[in-house]
Design goal:
By secondary structure, this protein is an all-alpha fold. It has eleven helices and no strands. Helix 1 packs across helix 3.
């Protein structure tokens, strides 16, 4: 399903997921609408996330069971993440998890799995737009998100943080403001 027909179907699926009678903890979780958007995007064929969202079959099943009971989406088999820097990216994200938000750990794995894609991170996640990704970042990784003071594109920002942490400096310019590729890192993401 593509073109204009996809949008109403995606929106209906997302609304249906959110209408599921989840328990209070899941229902009140700030990630629930974002998880519904990820699942709806995936069902609509958007993004590059594996069937299990990068969570593994058990955790994916728990997500569907606890957050979207009666979900029409099928359970998913374990996927294999072929991203050499996956462990380091997960560690970067987990070091910045929002305290007291259990689902933030899922988001660390989901974001890492989406980094394998070639589009903007919000597109690789199958989200509606970049604003949803920014919301996801601020909810789940507030200190890390706050460090993106120049509103750098999120995937570039994450890799820049990862590289700096590992002592890898690949940008030839002394600062972003004087870099010839500034627009590639900070331009619009449509």
């Amino acid at each position: 399903m593509n073109g204009p027909d996809r949008l109403p179907w995606r929106s209906l699926l997302q609304a249906g997921l959110l209408a599921a009678p989840a328990g209070a903890a899941a229902r009140d979780d700030a990630n629930r609408p974002l998880l519904a958007s990820l699942l709806a995007g995936q069902a609509a064929g958007e993004g590059c996330l594996p069937a299990d969202l990068g969570l593994g079959a058990e955790r994916h099943a728990a997500l569907l069971r606890d957050y979207f009971p009666g979900c029409p989406l099928p359970p998913a088999p374990d996927s294999r993440l072929d991203l050499p820097e996956a462990e380091e990216l997960q560690r970067l994200l987990r070091d910045h998890l929002a305290p007291g938000l259990a689902s933030a750990d899922w988001m660390a794995d989901i974001l890492t799995a989406a980094c394998i894609g070639r589009d903007h991170l919000w597109q690789d996640l199958g989200l509606n737009d970049r604003n949803e990704l920014s919301q996801l970042m601020f909810i789940n990784f507030p200190a890390l998100a706050a460090a993106n003071t120049g509103d750098m594109k999120w995937k570039k920002f994450l890799y820049r943080q990862f590289c700096a942490r590992e002592g890898i400096y690949v940008c030839p310019a002394p600062s972003c403001g004087v870099c010839a590729d500034h627009a590639k890192c900070f331009g619009p993401e449509n």
